[in-house]
Amino acid sequence: MKLKLFISDLDGTIVETEDYHRKAYNHLFKELGIDKTWSKQDYIKRLQTMGGNKFREVFGWLNIADQEYAKVKTELYQRKTELYVELISKDLRDGSLELRPGIKRFLNEIMAAGIPIAVATACVGWAAEKVLAAALGEPFLESLACLCGGESTQRHKPAPDVYIMAANKSGVSPEFCAVLEDTSHGMIAAKEAGMICVATPSEFAREHDFSRADLVLQDLETPNPFRLEDLMTYFLRT
């Protein structure tokens, strides 16, 4: 067996973005006139609630009726995502936010070897495209085999759906895929999809249980550079 498709998560994996989601929520609260802010610890707790469901708490502050939940949630989630993209794109482009160590080198190694790359993320597709363009450039974005965003599947991680979709869209069977993840729910999704998973825990996921990962690293440079040939050994074992 050999590696035929490399799939990466985005948030926390390619770049430490989770705190930008927190900052975007806090900006949104200010726009809504809500006298609340989420600290890092507050947000870590809320990371157990995926995507727009975090707005259940916000709706409690706004006294919005349940029958209005779906409509207003969509509007608020759209605005929060716009704020997130604005914040992170600015910091990526002015150099105040950098990619996670080793990620650009590793992705370049994969591309040089002619192995397709896909991105599978909980982030909505249009926002993921803008963040990837700011982080790695338009040529990288255009070279992707596919990009599956949070709206691509009904079930989100830890369900394996988004990874299975990425493999299907790329025309590759799951057993020939490897995934780079930063959270336990992402790792579980990759393993349930039948894929090799390398975990590099992000800032807000360092206490997660990564016992099912094939390999756990601090990042792709520490303590030594993790290379494509190292990843290939996991396929030679099968």
Briefly characterize the structure.
The chain is α/β, with parallel strands linked by helices and 238 residues long. Helices cover 46% and strands 9% of the residues. It is built from ten helices and six strands; from the N terminus they run E-H-H-H-H-H-E-H-H-E-H-E-H-E-E-H.
Structure in words:
This protein has two domains: 5-16 and 99-236, HAD superfamily/HAD-like (Rossmann fold, 3-Layer(aba) Sandwich), CATH 3.40.50.1000; 18-93, DNA polymerase, domain 1. The protein is built from ten helices and six strands. The chain has helices at residues 18-31, 40-46, 55-62, 69-93, 103-112, 125-136, 138-143, 161-170, 184-192, 228-236, and strands spanning 5-8, 117-120, 146-148, 177-181, 196-199, 215-216. The protein has a six-stranded parallel β-sheet, sandwiched between helices. Strand 4, helix 9 and strand 5 form a beta-alpha-beta unit. Helix 1 crosses helix 4 and helix 4 (69-93) packs parallel to helix 6. The model has no long low-confidence stretch (mean pLDDT 92).
| Residue fraction in strands | 5-15%
Our Rg estimate from Cα atoms comes to: 18 Å
Share in helix: 40-55%
The overall pLDDT average reads 92
**SSE order, one letter for each helix or strand:** EHHHHHEHHEHEHEEH
| Secondary structure tally, helices | 10
* Order of strands, widest sheet: 3-2-1-4-5-6
CATH class category name of the largest domain: Alpha Beta
Q: Segments where pLDDT lies below 50 for 5+ residues?
A: none
Query: Which class best fits the helix and strand makeup?
Result: alpha/beta
Please tell me the total number of domains.
2
CATH fold field value of the largest domain: Rossmann fold
Under the CATH scheme, the architecture of the largest domain is 3-Layer(aba) Sandwich
**Quick one: how many beta strands?**
6
CATH superfamily of the largest domain: HAD superfamily/HAD-like
Tertiary shape: globular
**Terminus-to-terminus distance:** 7 Å
Largest pleated sheet? 6 strands, parallel
